[in-house]
Amino acid sequence: MDLLVYGIGQLASPVGWEPRRGPAQGELSIRRDAYLVVCEGRIAEIGEGRRPRFSGPALDAGGRCVTPGLVDPHTHAVFAGSRVQEFVARARGERYTGSGILNTVGATRAASEEELVALARPRLLRMLELGTTTVEVKSGYGLSPADEVKMLHAVRRLGEGLPMTLVPTFMGAHAFPPELPREEYERLLVEEMIPAVARDGLARFCDVFCDEGFYTVDEARAILAAAREHGLGLKVHADELAPVGAAELAGELSAVSAEHLLHVSREGIQALARAGTVAVLLPGAAFVLDEPYPPARDLIAAGVPVALGTDFNPGSSPVASLPLVLSLAVLKMKMSPEEVLVGATLHAAAAVGLADKVGSLEPGKRADLVVWDTESYEEIPYWIGQNLAWAVVAGGRLVVPSHVEGLPRGAEEDRCAD
Ligand code: NIG
Ligand code: FE
After folding, report:
1. DSSP-assigned letter for residue 192
2. Which ligand 1 atom sits closest to the C-alpha of 241?
3. C-alpha 88, offset from chain centre
4. Considering only CA atoms, which residue is closest to atom 5 of ligand 1?
5. Which of 10, 214, 386, 395 stands the most exposed, by the fewest C-beta atoms within 10 Å?
6. Strand 257-260 to strand 3-13: parallel, antiparallel, or no bridges (unpaired)?
7. Do the beta carbons of residue 368 and residue 69 sit within 8 Å?
8. Would residue 222 count as lying in a domain?
């Protein structure tokens, strides 16, 4: 897993191991005519100018632009079935209420763990081809102890078989199972499901859909308190459908992230800023549902770190492309190309608790990077709906296109030796 990437026309990356607030959201380090040395899967050295001598495989970027591998901090990528009929119905003017989640629950319950893995694998590989090297995946289409655990086992198996970093989140509180009274399911979540998931190390975070028609603020508070007690990090699906005070709750609990926020209130923004909670914005869902976009400028102005994700799911956001999300964030949320790149790298990494490992190109971090078929990072959101990821390196291995053996060897000196 040693590699030299040279001939980098522009190397653009955020700097640091934690989120950058306010104007710093738009700060990038830009190097020209750069190279990057990987040793044992991590970045060992970044320099400018003449290509160093290196005995391992070498990748010539041919003057192209290199950024960190993209981090998608919010997906529901494990599911069975399709909701294309909901998509068609929306074209007739029907509104999304979230009730279609139960269709996916039915199909997901009927699928085996192996089937879920087989369905999700090509979805994740398509994300990798689009430049995404780290993906958070939520459960929440099982809504029973066995089916939620089945989903999280599928995430674990997918992570073992793919060159991407997957981050599992338990989201048993995504909807209410039709067969149980509400209070009984909440008791099951708090007393059985959360303790079991935490005990078996199946998830790193717990997320609750705190919104109109779903979990109330008080219910979400109780579920998240149990999650915290069992050592899980906290996330909140907050104020997507209506301003219910979910962002305020995320701030009160110092959650790692509050996600969606289409209808976040002023008080909610203040609460997130006070707590240092990352706002994970998902403009793909606003685009698909034809809803107002989340207020990125207000959040950044208030000092809330903003991350961007796809929300990839079969209902509200069948969007797998983070580059498309970056385009929407520039055009519809008025974020700068610098801010969106930080949002889908360092800040997204912070939203999944990995800002010390991925999200920027700096010595010590995992060698996850994308060579874009562009001259500058500004062109990534500019060329809309195209896949410009020319090469993807994950953990120091060239994984897209996947012909690492074909790379020419470098010169005799071994930069990784000492
Ligand atoms: O993030 N908001 C709740 N959950 C998903 C929707 C899932 C679905 O429609 O299946 C979301 O938008
Ligand atoms: Fe979601």
Report:
1. I
2. 2
3. 27
4. 316
5. 386
6. unpaired
7. yes
8. yes
CB atoms within 10 A of CB 281: 33
Q: Which domain holds residue 227?
A: 70-351
Residue 72 contacts residue 310 (beta carbons within 8 Å) = yes
Confirm or reject: Cβ of 101 under 6 Å from ligand 1.
yes
**Strand positions, DSSP E, 311-401:** 369-372, 389-394, 397-400
Residue 264 corresponds to which tokens in the numbers above? Answer: 């976040």
220 and 210 Cβ atoms separated by less than 8 Å: yes
The ligand 1 atom nearest the CA atom of 104:
10
Any domain includes 101: yes
Judged by DSSP in three states, 373 sits in coil
104 lines ligand 1 (CB under 6 A): yes
Ligand 1 midpoint to CA 172 (Å): 13
Specify whether 327 is located in the same domain as 369. no
On whether the CB atoms of residues 139 and 148 are closer than 8 A, the answer is: yes
368: CATH: 2.30.40.10
How much is the pTM? 0.96
Pocket test for ligand 1, best of 74, 76, 84, 208 (most atoms within 8 A of CB): 76
Overall domain count for the chain:
2
Domain end (from 319, 351, 383): 351
Give the helix ranges, DSSP H, for 201-255. Answer: 217-229, 246-252
**Atom 1 in ligand 1: which residue has the minimum CA distance?**
311
Confidence (pLDDT) at 15:
97
CA of 316 to the centre of ligand 1 (A): 6
Amino acid, single-letter form, for residue 303: G
- 240 Cβ inside 6 Å of ligand 1: yes
- What interhelical angle do 101-110 and 145-161 show, nearest 10? 80
Query: How far apart (Å, rounded) are the C-alpha atoms in residues 8 and 66?
Result: 7
Which of 317, 319, 325 should be mutated for ligand 1, with most atoms under 8 A from CB?
Answer: 317
> Taking the chain (418 residues) in consecutive chunks of 10 residues, what is each chunk's mean pLDDT?
94 97 97 97 96 92 97 98 95 89 97 98 97 98 98 98 98 98 98 98 98 97 98 98 97 98 98 98 95 97 98 97 98 98 98 98 98 97 96 95 54 56
Tokens of 123: 């979805």
In a domain, 202, yes or no: yes
